[in-house]
Input
Amino acid sequence: MRCMALIYDHIRHAGNAGDVIKHLILGEAVDHQLSAGLIYAESHAGYPGYILKPGGEWTSGIGRLWARRGDFIGFSYIQALERLNPSDLLAYPGSTCLAMMVAEEAGFSLRVEAWDIDPLAGPAWSSLDAFPHDLRFHTGDGFSGVEELLEEEAGLLLIDPPLIERTDVERSARLLGLAAKSGWTVLFWYMADIERPRLPASVETYSIEFAKAGLECDRWKEAAVAVSGSRELCERIRERTSEFMELVENW
Ligand SMILES: C[S@@+](CC[C@H](N)C(=O)[O-])C[C@H]1O[C@@H](n2cnc3c(N)ncnc32)[C@H](O)[C@@H]1O
Output
């Protein structure tokens, strides 16, 4: 019997508590790594952006922070969201667009290599030709796509799998290891309630329990981002995640 492919639809999840942690750290990492011609790669990019509909998962994610966004304005992630939403929170950038927005704000353009297996994502990306970045979107498997890219000059990689295939965690950990060996800076996002990935000893992991941050995310309790990068980057992410937690815990 053939197994049905598992389908993941990020539209339902955009802006949820997991995205908040992921995108907060991503914004800081992009801002830290910026340099002329930086390669930014994503193995699981999703769509350029999402419209936030009433009652969506975002309401217990970014929706909870939005009223107090002034407290978080030092974070590149919140700054990008504000530029996209000058008044009400209506639109949410996908991670790749967030990376491009952070770079643009600092006056840089990126070379972007993004993969997603969803055949509907490609047309959404091709409507973005006005972006001032060297952007290539590839429809297909991001694990193998990024692996081929690793031979090229190193850059910043986000691995953000849907975690619905049993092999997603293992393949992500493997890709992180390969990319790190090739000199790439890597962020790997996962729900920390799932099995803990086996990662190289040099990798630092930043995890946030949703309840402690005043957020909720369906049945999940904790998200983590594993970071393989320079000591300076890790220090920045450590400081910024602590700052974020202090802000939300002192509400
Ligand atoms: C968590 S979502 C990505 C969200 C996006 N990175 C963001 O933060 O805005 C995971 C994505 O992985 C895609 N996907 C699933 N399996 C894949 C594979 N083997 N290669 C590339 N993309 C895949 C899904 O279509 C989905 O869009």
In short: The domain at 10-249 is CATH 3.40.50.150 (Rossmann fold). Helices lie at 17-33, 62-66, 76-84, 95-105, 121-126, 142-149, 168-181, 231-249. Residues 27 and 76 are 5 Å apart (CA to CA). The chain has one domain: 10-249.
